[in-house]
Amino acid sequence: MGFFDRLWPRKRAMPVQETAQMRALLDRLVVLSPSLKLARDYRERLCPALAQSIAYVHDIVERLPPAREASAANWLDDPYIHAFFAAPDEISLVLSRSPELHAWFESHSLVSETWAVLGMAMMERRGFGVGRHGDEVHTDVAQTTLSFDDHQVRVCGESEADLREHIVQRVVEQIALEGLAQIGADESRRDALEQERALLRTRRQLLTRQGAGTQRMVGERAIENAAELAQLQASIEANEQALAALGLKTDALEHEMDVICGVLADPARHANVEMKHVRLSPMNIVIERDARSNGAEIVFPLARLPASPQGVRAFSLIRFARSDLMPLPKVLDEDSRFII
Fold first, then answer.
1. Of the candidates 205, 240, 259, which is a domain's last residue?
2. Model confidence pLDDT, tens digit, residues 329-338
């Protein structure tokens, strides 16, 4: 510390206040990567980055459309449920396939309904169909039809507010997992580079030994060995530069902390949600904005998670009643008839 620093000490940055949600996420991160606890001041260093992810995801979740009642009785009246399911009888059958939904109701025996996230694969099919232009009917009008499949229910809550908090936690966890995946990739690359370095050095020793003794005296294969030795030396230098970029193994813990903090501090790179605005006919045909045909305007989110193997998924918040839940064995028996 310098003379002026002792006279006028600098104020330290105020630490981010831990909320209950942040505390739960910190504890979850330590479970996912126990070595984080060994890092210097790990909680103080993680909190600011974690707060950025929470704020970003919380803002997205707050803007999600309200939950829709997923029931056969609501299929005709709600354009969202009508678009997501092909028929009213399909709603209970499809949603009751979720083991997580059954498990949630079993652990909440006194509640009559749940709020849940309905994830779906959205497909856009382009073709030709019947359309009206003015007073004329044409049969070769280009059309786009939306369809939704692979309905999944994994996250449930006791209320809509409770569900939204669960979503924030799950998405922030997914962002943190992306950081852990990067760390794992770095470690795998380090192991591969170290193995490559050992092989390159062994090959260099062999070539150097071949240049000794009688071979050095008579000059046998001297030119070929020199060319290969130069190429090997260039490969060794490139290998050492790649290893240096990963840092020392003794700094692995600090590197891990830096990667996690970097990923959490830049959540938009690892999780993004866009709102899909579309006007649909009762047959799920997209109606262009300038068309005169009547249709229902719906807005639903599309989640883009680069770390997820499923890529882009449509989803909606729904409310589902226990009375509409079909027994899981019956659902499996129903499906088993179609298995060949």
1. 259
2. 655 555 444 4
